[in-house]
Amino acid sequence: MEEQVKELIESIRPFLIQDGGDIEFLRIEDNYVYIKLTGACKNCLYQDGTISYGIEALIKDKIPEIEGVINVDL
Description:
The structure is a single chain. This protein is an alpha+beta fold. It has helices spanning 2-18, 47-62, and strands at 21-29, 32-39, 68-71. The protein is globular.
């Protein structure tokens, strides 16, 4: 499952990079994917929408066992 999530994240990265941001996979724990948004995405006003309607929707569609995506701001 982890490799599948990483592949999906890699498919999203070019779109985020195009807007000056990026995404980093951290881990899967209790069926939640932990990520870190960086660059322009880190402080973007649309960050929650990007996570919910973009990243989370794609991952949950392809891997139904995933409960959600959590952005970790380290």
